[in-house]
Specification:
This protein is α+β, with helices and mostly antiparallel strands and 343 residues long. It is 55% helix and 20% strand. It has 9 helices and 9 strands. It has helices spanning 2-30, 34-71, 75-112, 120-137, 139-153, 222-234, 274-290, 307-317, 332-342; strands at 162-166, 172-178, 182-186, 192-196, 202-206, 211-219, 243-256, 259-268, 296-304. Strands 4-3-2-1-5 form a 5-stranded antiparallel sheet. Strands 7-8-6-9 form a 4-stranded antiparallel sheet, with helices on one face. A hairpin with a 5-residue loop joins strand 3 (182-186) and strand 4. Helix 1 (2-30) packs across helix 4 (120-137) and helix 6 (222-234) crosses helix 7 (274-290). The longest helix is centred in the first third of the chain and has 38 residues, at 34-71.
Amino acid sequence: MGSFLNFLAASQTTNTSHAIKGVVDRLASTIFSAHSILVFALSLTTALLLGRVVAAILRRLVVMVGRRADKTENLSVVNRVRRYETMLVLSIAIIRTGLILFALYFWWALTHSSGSSGQPTAIIGASALIVIVISGALSPALRDIAAGSLMMLEEWYGVGDHIRVEPFTDLQGVVERVTLRSTRIRGLNGEVIWINNQTIQGVRITPKGSRMIGLELFVTNLKAGQQLIETTNKRLPIGPLLVINPLVITSTEEVGDQLWQITAIGETAPGREWLIEKSATELIKRLDEENPTQIIAHGPLARYADSEAERRFTRTLSNTRKRRTPKRRSLAKPAARKNHLST
């Protein structure tokens, strides 16, 4: 009986070894054959060449759309056109990836369609093994693609937006390219930064691409205060990466006896807020100190002055002035219920 069991075990081991050898021979004759390698190389080369042609055409469209966004003065139209630009840039990566996947499918179907009925189990097993190996090797890229797909579906940001990436507090710049796997931004210092999409936990977007900084100045002479703002503007550095728009007086109000409040708003590039918050305020104080008759009673005080944020917060803070009114108890319903019970 023991010899018979040993014979069965030896025969099963032999059958298993023959099956494994058959799978290996099948893979060697199909995947690693000269014909399979040639078809794989031709398919992949064709997909890459077609991807380059499609990318070149779409990049021309991206340039045209970007020029239209630059010429448009309406901010809502600019944001909509930038979304189109983002979709075009994103479609480049999607189409090129789709062409590569189609080339792999074409290679597999062409090299394994004939003779696959002889050993379907071996083919299925080999396919499962290849899928497991590829998915394990590409798992970081797959996580990037999953994160990028969700961000693009929810429209977190687009090409041309200025973003600050969380949790990297110092990582900010203008989005130049977006794919399902990564995002490329350009910083104010000219550095090109690539970020894997799975590492992006959140983004802070500057809607208009610039920072609005307001200064509150209390003076004892209105005309002299207005002249002080104009003199300060002449000494501020103007440029796309510096002070985009100089200080503009938006309101003047007399708040006391010979005391006026002047509100001036300037516009800077993101990350250059210090040009108004510090440089402009210090310059105003120094100019006033050099004046024999000093006019500044208080300030200047710097603050953010985004109009949309002010509108939103004004609506929210208006609820703080409201009070809950206590509900009055009605005596009619209990009385009616009592009459109903008596009947």
